[in-house]
Amino acid sequence: MPTKLIFSEHVRGPMPFLVENTTNSKKACAVKWPNFFIIGAFRSGTTSLCAYLSEHPRIYFSPVKETHFFSTDYPDQPRPTLQEYHRLFAARNDFHLAIGEGSTSYLFSDVAVPRILKCNPDARFIVMLRNPIHMAFSNHAHLLFYGVEDVGDFEKAWRLEGERARGRRIPPLCNEWRYLLYSNTCKVGSQLERLYQHVPRERVLIHFFQDFVRDTTQAYERTLAFLGVPSDGRKEFPALNRAKVRRSQGVVRLLGHLHQAKAAMGITRSFGISNALDRINIRQEVRKPRCSEFRRELIEYFTPEIEKIAKLTGRDVSSWLESR
To answer: Is 11 exposed, middle or buried, given 0-12, 13-18 or 19+ CB atoms closer than 10 A?
Structure first.
């Protein structure tokens, strides 16, 4: 997903891991790498949870969300170099009981979790699950908001997946076209199934989006217990990253091209004009999937994924299959 930080280089080819086959290799990795990861799913409350945990005095959290560092099977997604990634955690100290980062691409990436485990075999993982049908609608709106998507109607965007998989109809501001394949990125049942193939269940914490919204305090305390961190007594949990829309997609494209031009010329200074225009161009909006034949089509498509979630978590999610 889009990130506000533009890294100076992209990682290409094999990940430059720490030197292996040394006596202290595992110990060195454990010192240098985070020990927990919030890995997804898209549009399921991860931004809020990352923000809450980052304010806990005994937790050090990456100052940048969505580093995508381990998702090397998405080569066009900007990510930090090894040195830049380690610098994100340079301020940690012995007082911090848990060191974490959050990148939603890690859940749907084929390689991210194995690469994380190669660096820290004891890493813990937090997954936030949501009805994949709602998730798909919300993710489309999110990408549209940032100009990564340029088709305003989700049904039309869904039916463009075949063309986009062949490299056509890709928006000019989209760095990684595979984010536009909603049918794949929202297969959270299969993604959770793959995660359990690599990680024992006791090192995976599952939150359901509706539970997180209904009782955020309980979800937060569950997370602290999972990480072995004492409660800080937090009671206030402001909602973050709510659904928003742009008043004009033309302004979005204009600002996107301006940012690209600045980056190409090596200009890093902000003059405030883009931010001012962007604020004016935003309004809050709550989106709900409409009752339609298309929605019923989505229910049929995602039914196997929803059934996998029910089986893997023991949670009754049959309400997700309702057509209303």
So the answer is: buried
